[in-house]
Design goal:
The chain contains 6 helices and 3 strands, in the order E-E-E-H-H-H-H-H-H. With 222 residues, the protein is mainly α. The termini are far apart.
Length: 222
């Protein structure tokens, strides 16, 4: 609340109200209080309840995942099912029992007649199975890699948006500080750099250049 003996300056920015209270008794206006108030409705929550934005994000992620599952083709569903089964302990137990019986019978330890004394058929069966299982696993991994690439692009886009918003916020706060006569704002020369948008291509080029220089210096240090 702005005191009656001073003036007030309010700025609304993306759901946040910044209230700056000023005293007129001093020679220069000085910031007395900065209040950040949420413009959303007051909601009574029990202890341990999650914020609405968290619940909304969880529901959006689950909805997106369900949509991706529904849009998968029959071949992708079969490959995923086989990959899940091949990565389970049930698959291991079945092979332990099956291969164990196969080996015990063909070693002649049972009264049953042997049908693969040299285990050539067993080796051929295991090789063919390994070929198909590796193919199904690769199909699933390729699809998961494509999903990971899309999510990485989304993370990069959100990070760039956040950086842009922070840059604009720095510009706004700097302008407010200059408006109310705060000299401390001019004592930080890095503010001019922070107010500029970051070019991701230049950042990547700088990272590659630094990695290249470190690689070249490594043999010299040895």
């Amino acid at each position: 609340m702005v005191p009656s003996s001073g003036t007030g300056l309010a700025k609304r920015l993306r759901g946040v109200r910044i209230v700056i209270s000023l005293h007129s008794r001093r020679a220069k206006p000085t910031i007395v209080r900065i209040e950040v108030e949420s413009m959303s409705k007051n909601i009574t929550r029990e202890p341990g309840d999650m914020a609405d934005v968290v619940q909304r994000n969880i529901q959006a992620l689950l909805l997106r995942r369900n949509q991706e599952e529904k849009t998968k083709g029959v071949q992708d569903r079969i490959a995923d099912a086989i990959s899940r089964f091949a990565g389970s302990m049930t698959f291991v137990y079945i092979h332990l029992i099956g291969f164990g019986i196969w080996i015990v019978v063909n070693l002649g330890w049972t009264p049953l007649p042997t049908f693969d004394p040299t285990f050539v058929v067993l080796a051929m069966f295991a090789s063919v199975e390994a070929i198909f299982l590796s193919t199904f696993v690769l199909i699933t991994q390729n699809r998961m890699a494509a999903q990971a690439d899309r999510r990485a692009d989304l993370d990069l886009h959100i990070s760039l948006l956040a950086e842009h918003e922070v840059t604009r916020l720095i510009s706004l706060v700097t302008a407010i500080a200059e408006r109310v006569g705060i000299e401390a704002a001019s004592d930080h020369p890095e503010l001019a750099e922070l107010e500029k948008d970051v070019d991701p291509e230049k950042v990547l080029e700088k990272i590659e250049e630094t990695e290249s220089n470190m690689t070249k210096k490594a043999p010299d240090q040895l």
